[in-house]
Amino acid sequence: MRGKQIVTVNSRKFDGKIHRTWQAELKTLRDSLLVLTGEFDKKIVHPHLGEIVCGTMSEEFFWLDRWYSIFRFHEPDGTFKNFYCNVNMPPKFENDVLDYIDLDIDILVRKDFSFEILDVDEFEEHSKLYDYSDVLKLKVNQTLEELREMICRKKLPFP
Q1: How high is the pLDDT of residue 119?
Q2: For 74, what's the count of Cα atoms within 13 Å in the CB-facing half-sphere?
Q3: 60 pairs with which residues across the strands?
Q4: pLDDT in tens, 77-128
Q5: 3-class DSSP state of 149
Q6: 7 vs 41, 90, 136, CA distance in Å?
Q7: From CA 156, how far away is CA 37, in angstroms rounded?
Q8: Residue 31: how many other CB atoms lie within 10 Å
Q9: Which of 143, 142, 32 is nearest to 88 (CA)?
Q10: How far does CA 148 lie from the centroid of its chain?
Q11: Are 9 and 23 in contact (CB under 8 A)?
């Protein structure tokens, strides 16, 4: 019987520095899709998500060929909480480590599928700091449109 495969996830800023890191269990690896599950081991207060209590579960969808990742959060009792979509450069997966460059802009999707685009100011600030190319900025805008369409059509991983 095969044991759990634990993956270390590194969210990096554009300069390559690790911004956040965590561990999650690999549930699916199919074509370019990785599905991970994780559990918060401590309470976190997030400026947009509010309080994330210890035991909150996340189902994390990463595609090695897409410019976003999607997190589906559940309360410790299993109740659906929300989705959180990150705009990021396509990740790399090697030796049980998933690395990606976070491009700051996120979308919070509530239970009723209303949504809010977050951190546009941070994206603009980092765009200047790291001298994002016009091609990169265009890709970010195209990715936001793709995510908006997925949210409105309730496409996978949306129910």
Answers
A1: 94
A2: 12
A3: 36, 71
A4: 999 999 999 999 999 999 999 999 999 999 999 999 999 999 999 999 999 9
A5: helix
A6: 16, 17, 28
A7: 16
A8: 9
A9: 143
A10: 15
A11: yes
**CA 156 – CA 116 distance, rounded (Å):** 19
Q: Which two tokens stand for residue 33?
A: 């899709």
What is residue 157's predicted lDDT score, i.e. its pLDDT?
87
Torsion on CA atoms 99, 101, 106, 107, rounded to nearest 10: -50
| Torsion angle of the four alpha carbons 7, 97, 12, 34, in this order, in degrees rounded to the nearest 10 | -60
Assign residue 50 a region: left if phi > 0, alpha if psi is -120 to 50, beta otherwise?
left
DSSP string, 33-89: EEEEEEE-SS-EEETTTEEE-TT-EEEEEEETTSSEEEEEEE-TTS-EEEEEEEEEP
Residue matched to tokens 């990463």: 62
Q: What's the pLDDT at 2?
A: 64
Q: How far apart are CA 58 and CA 36, in angstroms?
A: 8
Residue 48 pLDDT greater than 90, yes or no: no
Cβ atoms within 10 Å, residue 62: 24
Which residues, at least 6 apart from 145, have a Cβ–Cβ distance to it below 8 Å? Answer: none
Distance CA 30, CA 35 (A): 9
